[in-house]
Amino acid sequence: DKLGVALVGLGYYSTDLLAPALQLTKNCQLVGIVTGTPSKAETWKKKYNLADKNIYNYQNFDQIANNPDIDIVYVVLPPSMHREFVVRAAKAGKQVFCEKPMAPSVADCEAMIKACADNKVKLAIGYRCQHDPNTQAFQKFAKESTFGKVRMVTCGAGYFDARTTHWKQNKALGGGVMGDMGVYALQGARLATGEEPISVTAQFHTTRPDIYKEVEETATFQLEFPSGALAACHTSFGINMNYLQANCEKGWFKMEPFSSYTGNKGSSPLGPINFPLENQQARQLDEDVEALMKGTALIAPGEEGLRDIRVVEAIYKSVAAGGKMIKI
Ligand code: NAD
Fold first, then answer.
1. In the sheet that 241-248 helps form, which strands lie side by side, from edge to edge?
2. How far is the CA of 236 from the centre of ligand 1 (A)?
């Protein structure tokens, strides 16, 4: 039997990626929605044949506790709203999936992890790339030291965002490139080394100061890892880039793109990295649901989201201190 999923927040990612993926999943299906917009409720109800009793708004959401159709609540709201809705879902006794970035602060992430633990539900973060066999291929090079130790990673993650008043440009809603595209660059460095960074230095920049008044448009950051490996990362809402290169003691590997929805690919001295993948989000959903059903470990639990936000907080500290090195 498929588990029932309710999406919270019906913006771009829910509409264009998650709902279509939930039509392809084998272990779960879209059965409910939580939305603040009545017209969206009507459209989604018709399009996905949803029962009236499975449609909630932000006020009556907590009543989902009494709804056996819904096993999983997937929070797809602006980052500053993740904590509230993850905690409410956990208190309702539902399994919780939450989009990246997990939340704006370490304190938020810890509260979310605690709420899920207290209510004996699992928390998975929407790190879709970790479910992609192309990502797993380069993670394996790091894990198995295929080319010796990884010494240096360069990674870029960005796109040109033409919007001017979206939550991505709004501090209170959890905007700023670091939590957004920045976590891809950070994950690239973490996954390509297989290590957790011990220090960071960072710089922010913008070419559009009229739009990026509250949050950073572009960031560069440099990470140091316990083995001595280094990473130079670049992330932006003003530059299209999607690449990763790792130089190792006895070789290299590179990916371009490394964090797209489709077509992630790369190469190493062993040949091309180019695994087929039907639908990345469907793979993520099915693998996470399988872990819930079997009681096995999630690929990206709340603790994994927290690891990134710890580094993101250190990056803000570094910039506030004029680019000082911050220990993590
Ligand atoms: P979006 O702006 O398109 O959608 C956000 C939704 O939240 C909208 O439906 C909006 O109505 C709702 N909302 C409720 N209260 C709001 C408020 N006060 N201000 C603004 N919106 C409010 O954003 P999105 O691109 O769908 O992103 C949603 C989440 O999904 C974010 O956490 C984002 O980082 C994540 N995301 C992840 C991926 C991925 O590849 N994993 C891709 C895109 C977005």
1. 271-273, 266-268, 251-255, 241-248, 150-158, 230-236, 218-224, 199-205, 326-327
2. 18
Query: What pLDDT, on a 0 to 100 scale, did the predictor assign at position 125?
Result: 98
What is the position in ligand 1's atom list of the atom closest to the CA of 40?
9
pLDDT at 20: 98
CA of 102 to the centre of ligand 1 (A): 12
Q: Whose CA is nearest to atom 41 of ligand 1?
A: 126
Instruction: Please identify every residue annotated as catalytic.
Output: 100, 184
Which of 74, 97, 167, when mutated, tests ligand 1's pocket best, judged by the most ligand atoms within 8 Å of its CB? Answer: 167
CA of 168 to the centre of ligand 1 (A): 9
- Closest alpha carbon to 215 in 178, 254, 183, 160: 178
Domain residue extents for the chain: 3-128+284-290+297-301, 132-275+306-327
pLDDT in tens, 65-84: 999 999 999 999 999 999 99
Domain 3-128+284-290+297-301 has CATH 3.90.230.10: no
- For tokens 């996905």, name the residue: 48
Domain 132-275+306-327 falls in which CATH fold?
Dihydrodipicolinate Reductase; domain 2 (3.30.360)
Q: Is the CB of residue 211 below 6 angstroms from any atom belonging to ligand 1? A: no
- Res 223: pLDDT: 98
C-alpha to C-alpha distances, 226 to 10, 48, 180, 194, 214, nearest whole angstrom: 41, 49, 26, 11, 34
Q: What are phi and psi of 202, to 5 degrees?
A: -150, 155
